[in-house]
Design a protein that fits this description.
α33 runs antiparallel to α34. The two termini are 67 Å apart. The longest helix is centred in the N-terminal third of the chain and has 32 residues. By secondary structure, the protein is α+β, with helices and mostly antiparallel strands.
Amino acid sequence: MEVTAEMRSALMKGRMTALPPDKSNIVRIFMSSTFSDMAKERNILLQKAYPELREFCQKQGLDFQVMDMRWGVRDEVVADHMTCALCLMEIDTCKRLSVGPNFVAFLGNRYGYRPIPAKIDADELDILLKKASDLDMDTSVIKEWYLKDDNAVPAVCLLQPITSKFKYYTDMESANESLRQKDKEGWHQVTVQLETILRTAVKAAHKEGLVTEEAQHKYIKSVTEIEIKRGIMESTDANQRAAIFMRNLHNIEKHVGADAVNAYLDLMDKEKLNEESQRLLEDLKGKLPSKLKNVHQYEVEWTDKGVNEDVESHASYLEQFSDDFVDDLKTMIFKSLQSENEEEQNDDWFLTEVISHARFCQAKCESFCGRQEIFDAVYTYMKDTAKVNHQPFVIHGASGTGKSSIMAMLAQNAAQTCGENLVTIIRFLGTSPHSTLIHPVLQSLCLQTCEVYGIESPPERVLNNFAEIVQYLSTLLDKVSEKDRPLLILLDSLDQLSSVDRAYSLTWLPKSLPPNVHIVVSTLPDEFDLLKTMKRTIRSDNSYIQVPTLSEQVGGEILDTWLAQVQRCLTDKQREVILSAFSHCRQPLFLKVAFDEARRWKSYTPESELRVAQSARAAINLLYERLEVQHGTIFVSHTLGYIAAARKGISEHELEDVLSLDDEVLDDVYQYWSPPNKDLVRIPPLIVTRLKYDIMEYLAERQADGKRVLQLFHRQFIECAQERYLAGDNSKARHHVLADFFLGTWSNGRKKEITMEVNGKQEYYNADRNVVPQPLKYDDNVFNRRKLNEVTFHLLHASRMDDIFKHTLVAENSVHSSYAVRTYTYHCYSPSLGNLAFMNAKTDALGVKSLTEDYNMVLQVQDNLEIRLLRDALRLIKPTLEFKAAVEVLAAAPNNELLVSGSLDNTLKVWNLETGRLVITMEEDHTHYQHHALLTTTVDSCKVVSPAGKVVNVWDIESGRLQFTLKGHEGAVSCLAVSHDNQYIITGAEDNTIKMWGTETGELKNTFSHHTDHLTCLKVTQDGRIVSGSKDTTLSVIDIENGEVVHRLEGHSHPVYSLAITSDGKYAVSGSDKVVKLWDLSNGREVHHLQGHYGIVDCVGVTSDNKVIVSGARDEHLNVWDFESGQLVQTLDGQAAKINAMEVTGYIVVTVSTDSYYTKVWDVEQSKMKMSTPRFIDKYGIVGVTSDAGYVVYKREGSENEVNVWNSKDGKDIRTITNKDGSITYLRITQDNNCVVTGDEAGFIKLWNLNTGLLIRQLDKASGGIRCFWITRMDRYLVAVTDDNSVSAWDIDSMMLLWTRKPNCDGKITCVTMTDDRKYTAIGTDKKEIVVLNNELDKVAYRLVGHQSPLTCLSVSHNQKLLASGSSGETMRVWDLGTGRLVHELYAKSPVFKGIVCLSFSYDDKYLMTGGHDRSLKMWDLQTGKMLTAQYVYATITCIVANRDNIVLTTKLGYVIVEDVLLPATRPLQEQGGAGSNGKDHDSNTRREHNKKKKSCFCCQIL
C-alpha cells in the first residue's frame, strides 16, 4: 500500500485514521507437513535450499526465516493441547510479516494426526452430548475431560490438560518410568473414547441438520489440513504467497506391515490402512489445484527404506524437489519486491518516523478509559494561551501511571475539542531510531511543521547543526503563529532521551511560545532532574499537572472494557480479587498486568490459584515467575535476559539463533530426549514460539538497523528483567553469547561442541548450530547493520576487551613496521585486517560518528590510550572519510570560504572550508557525469554554475535555491567559465557552439560557432578574451565583445583536451594526446612543443610567476616543465592512477584521479624538488625480476614485440630483446637468473640470454597464442595456456612438446601452475573455478570451488603439497593438492582496490606472500591462516620472488623493492627510529619484552 498524497497530508496534520501497513524486510515461511515421512525432504532443504535462499534474501536486504513447528515438540506442549493453536497463530504472523511467500506445505501419503478439538462451543457440546445419550453412549468421559468455562463469551468447553488427570504423563524421571507409561496408556484409552463419542455424535447430529458440514469436519480433520486451510484456503493472495509439494510413493499400499511403512502411511494398529484418513487425504489433495497454481507433484517408487537418497531416482527427486522449492520462493520474493518498488515513493527517514509514531499512538489509544481531568487541564491551557505568549505545559507522574496513553489520546482527540483546524505533532521519545537523540527529533519536528504550513524547509547546514536547528525552531514557531492554523506539539517521555547534545539541560526546548503554538511534554518526576530543570524556567504552577492514580470506579470501568474486548468476563470472586489488589496500586500499568493474568482464569479456576500482586513491580515479577514455572526457569531467564541485554532490541530469528548457541539452554531443553539430528543441534522453534505468544502483550515491535526487533514494552518490565536475569555474572554470560552470535563465530557450518545430560546419561555432540552468517556486508551495497551496531556493545559488556581489539576497534597486536627508503625511516601503524574491515564497513554504512560513539562507549569502561588516539584521529579526519569516492567534480569559491562538490548521488554539496562542515545540499540529475562532470562558481562567490546535460543550472550558494536554468544548447555542455568581471557565464557544448549568458538574469547574450567539432575546454582572460579548445584539434582566441576570432591556434594533430591561461593572460597551455603546447596569445604563435607523456593529457597548469608548466595525463605521470626553455624538469608518478584534474596555487599542485580515493599535493618549486628514484616504465604488467633484484625485464612502452632489460643498480635500460614473430604476451625469468622466457601471440615460447639478449632456443609451437605460463622449479618444465583455452607442457631442455589438452572447464583459463614432478597441473578460470588435472592418469583430479571472483594467479609450494590461488576479489585460498581440501581462506580486505596479482610461497613453505591492487605486500602464516603483517608500497605489486632471506618485488610504478622479513622467533625487531633515535639495540631483556609485543614486520628498501 503506497502513501498517497492525501494520506501523507493527513499524517502530517496529525490525523491517524488511515496508516500504511508496516513495511517488512522478513521472508518468513511456515512449513506445514507431517514429520516422520518428510524427514529426507526437510534434510535437503536444511543442507541446500535454506542456505541458498538465506544468501539470496540477504543480498536483497531481507531476513530469511523458516518456522518448522514439527521440529522438537516437547511433551508439555502436547499435554496442554496448545500445538494447533500456536501453529495457527504463527501462520497468521507469517502472513502479516513476510515479504512474498509465507506458507509452504508438503503432502505425502499420510493425512497426519487428527486431534480432537481443544475447545468446543458450549451449545454445540450440549447438542453432541444429547445425541450421544440418544445413541446410548456413556458420556461421562466427555463431562470429565471437557469443562465449561463461563468466563468465555459465549461460553466454551475446554479439553483439560493431560496432566490434570495423569500427573506422570510428562514426568521423565527414570524412577517414575513405569508410572509415566501407565499414564500414557491411560491417556490413549481416554483419547480413543473421546474420539469415538464425539465423532459418532457429530456425524449423527449432522445427518439431522443440527450441526453444519464444517462443524462436523473439525472433529475428523488433521492438523495438516487445518494449517493448509488457514495458510491457503483462507488467503486471498495464496497464488503469490504459497506453494504445495505433493509426493506420491508408488505401490506403498502393497507393503503395509513392513517396518518402514509406519512412517509413511496412516495405519490402524500398524497393520491396517486407515481408510478414513486416506479418503480425507485424497479429498484435500483434490481441492488444492483449483485453489493454488504453485502445486508440484512427484511420483516416487517405494523402497524398503522409504525415501532413500542412496537410490539414484530418489536422489534425483530430492534434488529436483529442492530446486523447485528454491525457484518458487525466489520467484515469489522477487515479484513481491518488484511490486513494492513500483509502489514505493520517497522512502525517506522523516516520513517513516512520522508513520512510526502514528502507529504507536494508535496502539496506545486502544482500550483507553478515564483521565478526563488531565484532558480538561490541557484544553484549558490551550484555550487560555491561544492569543498570548506563554510557556510549555508539563505532565508528570510516576512510571506506570499512563502518561504515554494520555499523550496518545491528546494527539488523537485534540482536534475534536479545539477545532479541526488544529495541527497535532507527536513524538514518543525513545520508541524509534530517530527519537532517542534530541537532534534528529528536532529535525523531524521542523520538517513536519514546514511541510504542513507550506514553509520552505531549513537548509541542510541548519538541519545538520544542532545549535542552528535549536535557533531555527524558535524562528519557525514564530512563523507558524502568524498562520491561521494552531499547532500542538506533544513530546512524550523526556526521560527516554539520550544525554547526547546535553538533552537533559532542556536548553533546546522553547520556553516562550507565541500565540497559537502549544507544546505539551511528559516526564518522570525524578529522572535526571528533568522536572527540577523545567521548574527553573517554567515557573507558573498552572503549567504543570501531576497524573493522579486511577479511582477504583474508573479502574473497574477499564477492567470491564478490556474484558469485553477479548470476549471474557470474571466471576464475582475473581473480579473482587482483581479490584482489591488494584486498590493497593491504582496505576494503569498494574491494572494491565493484573488483567492479563485474570483473562487466563477460567470460571472453574480454584480460588486458591487466584494470585495477584499488590504493586506493579511485584506483578511483573509474579508474571516472570509464572513463565518460569510454565516454560522452565533456565529457558525463560535466558530468553528474557537476551531481550533485556540487546542494545537496540533483538529480532525473532536472532533470538532463536542465540538460544541455539546457549549450551545451558540446550542442555535444559534436551534433558529427557536427544536432538532429532545428531549433526544439527538447535532450540526447537515451537518452544520459543510458545513463550513468545505468552509474553506478546509485553513485547513491542520496533525498527532497528533496518530490521524488525522485539523489546520489552515498558521501562518497568526492562528494569525488572535486568534485576532478575542480568544480575552478577548472568549479564556477562548473556552478552558473551550475543557477541559470539554477531561475530559469526559459530556460523558457516562451524561446529560447536556440547555435552548434554539426556535421561541421566552424558551425550556428546560436535554439531552445527545452523545460525545465520554474520558478514560485514551481504552484498556490495547491503551492509550488516545489526552486526555493525551490536557486536562491540556485547563484547564490551562481556568483558572481552581482547576481542574488541581484534575484531572491531583497534588491533590487539598492532604492528609498527620500519619502512626504510634510502636514508630516511618512518613508521606505519598496521591494525589487524579484521578490524580494519569492520571500521571501514561501519564508516561506510553508519558514518564516522557511529564509529566514534563505539570508541566513547569503550573508553567509559577502559581508558585506553590507543583507543583515545584513534578516536581523536577519526574526529579529525571525519570530513575526509565522509567525502565519498562518488564525488566527480569540485569548485572552490573565490572567497576561499566555500567548496562545492558534485557527486554521482545526484547532489551538489557546499562545504565550509574552515570548519569542514556541510553547509547545504542541492539535488539535480547527474546522469551526464559519465560524460562531463563540470562545476564552477561566480566570481562574487554567490552562485554555483552546474551543467546538467544540455542545460546549465545556476544555484544560490547560501540558500540552495535554483535561480534559473540556461537552455539553448543542442548538445551536452562540455566546458564552462565565468568572465573575470562576473558579467557572463560562458558555455561550450557538443553542438560545436559557445554561448554567453548574463550572470544575473540568465539571458542569452551571444552564440559563437568557430569550431567544427565538440568543444572540450575554454578559459577567459582578464582582458576579455575567450580561449577555447575543441576536438577539431584547434584552439580559438575570441573577442568577448564582438565574437570575432582574434587568433586560431593550430598545431595539435589530435583533439585538445585541456587548457590553462597564465595569470597575466599572455600565454595559453594546451594538452592533447601525449603532447603539451605553449602559445603566445598576443600573436597566436606556438612557443614550445612539449613531448614526454605516453597518454592523453587531461589537465595542464602554470605557476603564477610563469616559471613552471605542469601537466597530468592518463599515463599516471605529472610532468614538470621549465616555462622558459620547455625542458622536462621531472616526472612525478606518485598518483599511481590516471590524473584527471589539477589545481595550481603558487608552486603547490593538487592532483586527483577518478581511479584513486586520495588527493596528491606536490611542491614543484625546482629548488625543493629531489631527484627521483630510478624506475622502469611498466605499462603492460608484463614483467619479471631476478631473484637478486639486479635486473628487471619488462615489455617496452610503445612496442608490442620488444622487452627491455633494466639494471636496477644504475636505473637504466641496458638492452632490448626483439621478438620477430609478433606481440609478446607473457614473460618470466628462470630461477637461475640466466634466461628470459617470452610467449607471443603466434604461439612461440622462446628462451633468451639475459646477459646478451640473444635467442637460446625456441620450444615447439603451441596450438594458439600464449596467454600465460608457469616454469617449474629447477627450470625443467614449462606449462602454458593458449588463446584457444588449451593447456600444453614442454620439456625445456629438449624443447619437445610433451602434451596438449583442452580441459573441460567453464570460462576462460586465466592462470596455470604445475608441480615439479609434472603429476598435477592446476588451471584457474574467469568463472571462479580451479581445475586440477592428474597428468599421469590424464583426467580431472579435483574441481575446486569457493572463490567469488575470477581467478588471477596460482602457485605450488616448494614441497609440492599446497596450491595457492588468488582472485580479482578479496580472497585467496590455500588447498591441499593431495586431497583437494581447502586448508585456509585468506581475506585481503581493501576499501577501494581489490584483486590479487601475484603470490609466492616462502622458501620453507611456512608463509605465503601476496600482492595486488590493494598496493600492499602481505605475509600469511600457513599454519594458522592469519595475516602476520602488511607493507604498503603505494602501487600495484606486479611480481613477487621469495628468497631464503628476503622478498623481491616490482610495482606498477616501476620500482624494485627488497623486503627483509623480521620474525620474533629468529631475530629481534629494531627499536623504532624517529627524531632523536640513536638506532642502537636495547639490552637483551628489552629485546625479549619487545618480541612479546611484536609479531613480524617487513624492512623495505627501494632500489
